TrEMBL record:
Superkingdom to which the source organism belongs: Bacteria
Record-stated family: Belongs to the thiolase-like superfamily. Chalcone/stilbene synthases family.
Protein name: Naringenin-chalcone synthase
Alphabetized UniProt keyword annotations: Transferase
Family matches, as InterPro entries: Chalcone/stilbene_synt_C, Chalcone/stilbene_synt_N, Polyketide_synthase_type-III, Thiolase-like
Residues covered by the Chalcone/stilbene synthase N-terminal domain: 8-218
Lineage: Bacteria, Bacillati, Bacillota, Bacilli, Bacillales
Chain ranges of the Chalcone/stilbene synthase C-terminal domain: 233-366
Length: 384
């Protein structure tokens, strides 16, 4: 990247979560109560919740905070009382729009761009559908231009946030005046299943709700700390299509996560990272999508990363759980906050180079080279 050429970059980030907070210990106890007649499942559930590395999450569904006797999502309830997919999609329609608006407004403010400057709107979600979709509400309520180019990315899973970042970079590369607003909204807890099966309990233990947005375009002198977007790479792990997947069921979406996922990542990801960096030194910054504690542990061990290098990913997992596609932007926001806190120390140093990684059904992976740049590095101006 030419030091005097405006970078294609994430210019601003915004995040939002629902108002209902799930405390992991409380949720574990309520689930154990619901499984009282199945002691083996109750013990397994407590073990999963304890080992998840999640302490708090957020949900748009207040019923999930109710005791087991009155919660409609627990395994002990009759399916006649369990929310149907239609009910869950109606709640998604109601709750997804305000969260998306909050995150998008935050990203626009952070980027110091006006809504009228946005040329493309990319919306990402795998936890709900309705038409007219979220993008029409965002255009109307944010004041985006009516001719903004809309691109919905649906049902791509946890990797979709970085898929959208990759697409945004390509759009700006082909059109220097493009300004993309990218909005991810995932209401994962709407799909908690009334099942005592281990796969369902695992998903119940660490998915949360959240929205995240970012603005991507050519950088300018009025932007604060940004993540420049360099080369990227996508790949699918051979023979892994059955290791992660979603299916639409009568009671929400059914998720399957194989226990082999950390093992597959350890086996196949290093070659893809090597291809991305093409012999260059390994990066200092690691924005790892916390699709589970085992994924972070595996990559930290493989690359002998310091705890500080995985701090952002572990903090997001601890405080919010896995919010599917939105999570990687939470990680980048957390990482940027940590870097900005070091500004007196970083002053005069070279920009910090890094990588963002996310994994989704397939088993697919998205890898994006990033460089953290402050205005003092790039424009020769004092950081505000």
């Amino acid at each position: 990247m030419n030091a005097m050429e405006p970078a294609i970059a994430i210019l601003g980030i915004g995040t939002a979560v629902p108002r209902y907070q799930l405390e992991q210990t409380d949720a574990s106890e309520r689930l154990a109560d619901a499984l009282a007649e199945n002691p083996e499942a109750a013990r397994w559930a407590k073990r999963i919740f304890k080992q998840s590395a999640v302490e708090t999450r957020y949900t748009c569904e207040p019923n999930l905070l109710e005791p087991a006797a009155s919660c409609r999502y627990v395994p002990s309830k009759s399916l006649l009382d369990t929310p149907t997919t239609a009910e869950r999609m109606e709640m998604y329609k109601v709750e997804s729009v305000p969260l998306s608006l909050q995150a998008a407004a935050g990203a626009l403010s952070d980027s110091r761009l006006n809504a009228s400057e946005i040329t493309h709107l990319i919306t990402v979600s795998c936890t709900g559908f309705f038409l007219p979709s979220i993008d029409t509400a965002l255009i109307d309520q944010l004041g985006l231009k009516p001719d903004v180019k809309r691109i919905p990315l649906t049902f791509l899973g946890c990797a979709a946030g970085l898929t959208a970042v990759r697409l945004s970079r390509e759009l700006v590369e082909g059109n220097a005046s493009a300004r993309i607003l990218l909005v991810c909204i995932e209401l994962c807890t709407l799909h908690i299943q009334p099942s005592s099966e281990r796969e369902a309990l695992f998903a119940t233990a660490f998915f949360g709700d959240g929205a995240a947005a970012c603005v991507i375009g050519r950088s300018g002198s009025n932007q604060r700390g940004i993540f420049a977007l360099d080369t990227n790479h996508s790949a699918i792990v051979p023979g892994s299509k059955d290791d992660m997947g979603w299916k639409v069921g009568n009671y929400g979406f059914n998720l399957y996560l194989s226990p082999r996922i950390p093992e597959l990542i350890g086996k196949y990801v290093p070659a893809e990272i090597e291809r991305l960096f093409a012999g260059s030194p390994m990066p200092e910054l690691w924005a790892i999508h916390p699709g589970g504690r085992g994924i972070i542990d595996k990559l930290q061990a493989l690359y002998e990363l310091k705890d500080e290098q995985t701090r952002a990913s572990r903090s997001v997992l601890r405080d919010y759980g896995n919010m599917s596609s939105a999570t990687i932007l939470f990680v980048l926001q957390e990482m940027r906050a940590g870097l900005r806190s070091q500004l007196p120390v970083l002053s005069g140093q070279d920009p910090k180079r890094g990588i963002a990684l996310a994994f989704g059904p397939g088993l697919s992976m998205e890898l994006q080279r990033i460089t953290y740049i402050e205005p003092s590095f790039y424009w020769g101006e004092a950081c505000d």
